Amino acid sequence: MLQGFSVVMGGLFISLWISGCGAVRTVPSLYVSDSPKMFSGTRLNLRTLAGEHRISEKFELNPPRYPLIDLPFSLAADMLLLPVTGPAGTYEWLFEP
User: Fold this and answer.
1) How far apart are CA 97 and CA 91, in angstroms?
2) DSSP characters for 31-87?
3) How far apart are CA 62 and CA 72, in angstroms?
4) Alpha carbon 58 to chain centroid, angstroms
5) For residues 16 and 79, what is the distance between their CA atoms, to the nearest angstrom?
6) Over its length of 97 residues, how does the chain's per-residue pLDDT go in tens digits?
């Protein structure tokens, strides 16, 4: 069990070190109106993989260098950040015109 944990932590560290976690990099944009809120790191990686060119306009940051490596870690981080990003996204959806 300890060996599996160390492999996961090592993979997480390498992913964050190589490309910068998309979820962590998009959290500061929570307070910017019209920015992606929930699962923003996962969405950033998926749009990068799809070849969209306007990513830097929507997310206000450069896309990750290795989005396929970063995708599972961003998904996990986005799920952990859901208690923070969920209320921000819901508030914007309900109260912002």
Assistant:
1) 11
2) GSTTS--TTHHHHHHHHHHHT-S-HHHHHSSPPPS-HHHHHHHHHHHHHHTHHHHHH
3) 19
4) 13
5) 16
6) 567 777 776 666 665 555 566 776 666 666 666 666 788 888 888 888 888 877 767 667 777 778 888 888 888 888 888 888 888 778 777 887 6
